[in-house]
TrEMBL record:
PROSITE patterns: CARBOXYLESTERASE_B_1, CARBOXYLESTERASE_B_2, TAT. One of its GO terms (molecular function) is hydrolase activity. It holds the Pfam family COesterase. It is an enzyme of class 3 (hydrolase). It comes from the Bacteria. The keyword Hydrolase applies. Belongs to the type-B carboxylesterase/lipase family. Residues 44-523 form the Carboxylesterase type B domain. Keywords: Hydrolase. Its EC number is 3.1.1.-. The keyword Hydrolase applies. InterPro entries: AB_hydrolase_fold, CarbesteraseB, Carboxylesterase_B_AS, Carboxylesterase_B_CS, TAT_signal, Type-B_Carboxylest/Lipase. This is Carboxylic ester hydrolase.
Length: 544
């Protein structure tokens, strides 16, 4: 675990935060807010939509609607086409079971860090969403829309991990999760003139329009939507900040958890080269021939795409968004600085050992040499690579080359560009709150530290839904549950009020250029001025 200079500090307003009492200061929390019954005596809830009637289920005092189509199935001629309106249905549609997840690579038993991140069944007919609400009524509750991550190739809004139950019940919120096209089906680019290139983006945009047009029927307020996501999902949130159909913003607040803003989003020419590589792998000449192949064959080719597009010392991303000049004209971070995204309330953060997720247990990287890591450091620091290597090495007693590499990658991809965004928004007087998740996991003998994704079960406060995740093994239940209560309550407060402060939580000030306040989420939680300042200045020598 990194012992950087910012670690040796005195926390302001600190205190061990515990349990459900943290929710008592939040409107809609346990203290005194009655739950709205979803239906009488457990009767399945029903809503009327323009597309047709939906019948959901009553689950633990909530009305839940699963597998609701928000766009036409992107199959046949609609494969690699922008999302199209759903034609609707006759009679009453059952909405008690999740829809299939987007096609993706799958390994029985999962991996040694997160376990599984997307489970069968898989189908190209995957454009569905799920809604949890305290009541399908006219209460106009704040809405949270969650976009899952997964490196653009995996994940599902139907996973138990991302159940909206805790947020809906504890915060009196309406929660929406969604599936969207992944991997080659969502991210290939074919360069057709004037055509959308980011099919994943058109899916998510269609889902947001569905929320705008229909969420009131589920007891939600379409004018009070918070869009939240993690990793690739957080990058999606930033990209969607520029969308303003008919001049009306689709959301007013954004939560970016570990957004990989350091990714270089390719332009059309580079994306066409990547697509050509993919076509070569499958031995086809064009998109018409690709449309004739089964999705299983398309997904299987992802393995070879990893091999052909990977670069030593970088987080592998075989499929990426594209600056297609139609759906995406600027980097996602820029969209939160000007235009429609400038006025959005923003909560942004990262984990302290982000890159341990992908590299700490990877044997070839564990065996990395100083010379290999120095060569990688030159990509970031140029002539200052040796000085930077020494700084990272000294921050970890007994650091191995792989430790230096992981900290460098984590800063390049997540922390430093996240800080840059906070700095620029603060300089323009735009609202932004920042956090760093610092609690390490003891799993795998502590090699993971506070790895990428580790904050997720704390945010959702639903550890019972994460039993398959190896990286949670060994956490002290008292510390775990106390921090989860604090984090979950802060997210609810931000969604409801645009401010993460609540009840006994230490004061969480906005990120301002004068103080650069960042909340350290740890066994003892507290706000710290310029928490990552040493590393910010190392990467940006002219920064003050």
């Amino acid at each position: 675990m990194t012992d950087d200079p910012s670690r040796r500090r005195i926390l302001r307003n600190t205190g061990v935060l515990t349990g459900a009492a943290l929710l008592s200061g939040i409107p809609g929390g346990p203290a005194g807010t009655a739950e709205a019954a979803p239906s009488a005596a457990g009767t399945p809830p029903v809503v009327e939509l323009p597309a047709g009637r939906l019948r959901g289920s009553a689950e633990g005092g909530l009305a839940v609607f699963k597998g609701v189509p928000y766009a036409a199935p992107p199959v046949g001629a609609l494969r690699w086409r922008p999302a199209q309106p759903h034609p609707g249905w006759q009679g009453t549609r059952d909405a008690t079971a999740f829809g299939p997840s987007a096609p993706q690579l799958y390994r029985e038993g999962g991996d040694a860090v997160l376990g599984t991140h997307g489970s069968p069944p898989f189908s190209e007919d995957c454009l569905t969403l799920n809604v949890w609400t305290p009541g399908a009524d006219g209460a106009r509750r704040p809405v949270m829309v969650w976009i899952h991550g997964g490196g653009f190739i995996s994940g599902s809004g139907s996973l138990p991990n991302y159940s909206g139950e805790t947020f809906a019940r504890n915060g009196d919120l309406v929660v929406v999760t969604l599936n969207y096209r992944l991997g080659p089906l969502g991210y290939l680019y074919f360069g057709e003139d004037g055509a959308d290139g980011n099919f994943w983006f058109t899916d998510q945009l269609a889902a947001l329009r569905w929320v705008r047009d229909h969420i009131a029927a589920f007891g939600g307020d379409p004018d009070n939507v918070t869009l939240a996501g993690q990793s690739g999902g957080a990058l999606s949130v930033a990209a969607l900040a520029g969308a303003r159909p008919a001049g009306r913003p689709l959301f007013r607040r954004a939560i970016l958890q570990s957004p990989p803003l350091g990714l270089q989003i390719p332009g059309r020419a580079e994306s066409l080269r990547r697509s050509a590589t993919y076509l070569d792998i499958l031995g086809v000449r064009n998109v018409a021939e690709l449309r004739a192949l089964p999705w299983q064959q398309l997904i299987a080719a992802t393995i070879e795409m990893f091999r052909r597009t990977g670069q030593w010392g970088y987080w592998s991303t075989p499929f990426l968004p594209v600056l297609d000049e139609v759906t995406l004209t600027r980097s996602p971070a820029d969209l939160l600085l000007s235009g429609p995204g400038a006025d959005i309330d923003l909560l942004i953060g990262w984990t302290r050992e982000e890159a341990a997720f992908a590299f700490a247990l990877n044997e070839p990287y564990v065996a990395a040499t100083r010379e290999q890591v120095l060569a990688r450091a030159r990509d970031t620091f140029g002539a200052g690579a040796a000085e930077a290597y020494t700084a990272y090495e000294q921050a970890r007693p007994g650091a191995r080359p792989v430790d230096v590499l992981m900290d460098l990658i984590g800063d390049d991809l997540f922390r430093i560009p996240g800080l840059d965004l906070a700095e620029k928004r603060a300089a323009r007087g735009r609202p932004v709150w920042a956090y760093q998740f610092d609690l390490p996991t003891p799993a795998h003998n502590g090699q993971l530290g506070a790895a990428h994704c580790l904050e997720l079960p704390f945010v959702f406060n639903n550890f019972d839904k994460w039993s398959q995740a190896p990286f949670l093994a060994g956490l002290n239940p008292r510390i775990r549950d106390g921090l989860a209560g604090a984090v979950h309550a802060s997210w609810i407060s931000f969604i409801r009020n645009g401010d993460p402060n609540h009840g006994p939580m230490p004061n969480w000030a906005r990120y301002e250029r004068g103080s650069r306040t960042t909340m350290s989420l740890d066994a003892v939680t507290g706000s710290v001025d310029d928490l990552a300042g040493y590393w910010r200045r190392l990467h940006r020598p002219t920064a003050r």
